[in-house]
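Data availability (excerpt). All sequences and predicted token strings are deposited with the supplementary files. A representative entry, Response regulator, is shown inline so that the format can be inspected without opening the archive.
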Amino acid sequence: MRIVIAEDDPLLREGLALLLRAESLDVVAAVDGPKAFLDAVDTHEPDVAVVDVRMPPTHTDEGIVAAVEARRRRPDLAVLVLSAYVEQAFATDLLIHGSSRLGYLLKERVGRVEEFMTALRRVAGGGTAIDPEVVAQLLSRSRPGRRLDRLSPRELDVLALMAEGLGNTAIAERLVVTEGAVHKHIRNIFAKLDLAPSDRTDRRVAAVLQYLERGAP
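Structure token line:
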């Protein structure tokens, strides 16, 4: 697995590089800004990019903008975004641009090596990894939405785990239910959120977006 790191904090950047190399992963570049990041993506053609949300010069959304551009150049690039805070707009932006091979983690998760590596490998393998704390904080800020109010407490539990990026098997294990029960809950979620089958829309992503977006102030 070839990895590019884009992080302007030198301690965290070097710490990430050491951690990943200790896991026998190939860190081909570790850079401190969006332009250097895009140059590294073009030069090294990595499998995964680990990108800070806030980078120079304005320390606002340069990381997200660069990650979107990197994915435009290399659609198969897996991107794991790191943020110091829960920033709803950036979390939903990741899913708006497609959920495959994308992740959003709080930086504190890096210190929990096993959890961080699990998220990295899930994203590299084509999945989605949304930090559980991101989901929890978005839910705590949320206000009721008419369609989401239709969901039962168990269906909301399932949707919250979908927002974390878990697949049906992992959801079943977390909730200690059968996969058949999870399938049933997800069918009910789609029906109650008025998400009909479509060739243009991933219903799972659309459901998660409704869940996350109801946290808007």
